[in-house]
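It is worth pausing here to work through a concrete case rather than discussing structure prediction in the abstract. The textbook approach is simple: state the sequence, then state the predicted structure, then interpret. We follow exactly that order.
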Amino acid sequence: MMDLSIITSIYNEQDSLRELVGEIHSSIDPTGMSYEILMVDDGSTDDSWETIKDLKGSDPHIRGIRFRRNYGKSAALYEGFKVCCGNLVATLDADLQDDPAELPEMIRMVKEDGYDLVSGWKKKRYDNVFLKNIPSKIYNATARRVTGTHLHDMNCGIKVYRGEVVKHIEIYGEMHRYIPYLAKNAGYTNIGEKVVHHHKRKYGKSKFGMNRFMNGFLDLLSLSFLIKFGKKPMHIFGVYGTFMAFIGAVIAIWLIIAKLVAQAHGRIFRPVTEQPLFYIALLAIILGLQLFLAAFIGEMISRSSYNRNDYNVRETI
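Step two, the predicted structure:
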């Protein structure tokens, strides 16, 4: 097992790869650490893979993985986390906007200050203000509020982890944005942050778009829900379903009793089936029962899951 694994996700970044590898060597070689550079080609359509193979031929530090098609950054990081073998793991983007010179200090923070994860903070960014900077600030403010993870830049590409952290989290879809939150909920709560330099993009073009901005919020809601209720769906669907069915039943019974009382005293009454409130009550009962049944089915699925009793044990004596 080596000291450090450096993982980078690559999608059409052929022009930056040689410079990236050179900067990594310049930053890590002076530390005396043993390390690997794990380059995951996420289905590039340019000559990125040919460049990786060429670099591999002259550099024993490099390992390469190539996907058959583009799956996304989460898939690339997941595959990298699965096969890496470093006591520490670092991630950074391949577009040269992340500076490998930041890694030694972030490594020191993990090794000496006891952090489980150190995330970069691009305090000063060189991106389009309206298309990326402002949406990023809104996204991060929302993420801090929802997750309780107080990082200024949760989606910053440059991070350093203890090796065990990446082995105990699972990322998929677009969940790479929330790795600190996933780590926190896996029990790795000592999360630090370091201000890092952000460089202007030198080659290629940004993969960021407004669709990713919107997807990020949807993923945040999904992740928050799954973490809180993924193994106990009855605690949300069952509660709301029972409440709705109960309120609907109370309203329906009250309308029927009111009608019977009025009828018994010879007063004019409006038929129950002609009152809109009665149908609202029926709708509440039906929706409540459906929510409860959804919760019950969810519980059955959760109970039969193969990893229902997977827990992250910190230590034994």
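Step three, interpretation. The chain has a mean pLDDT of 86. The chain has two domains: 2-229, 233-303.
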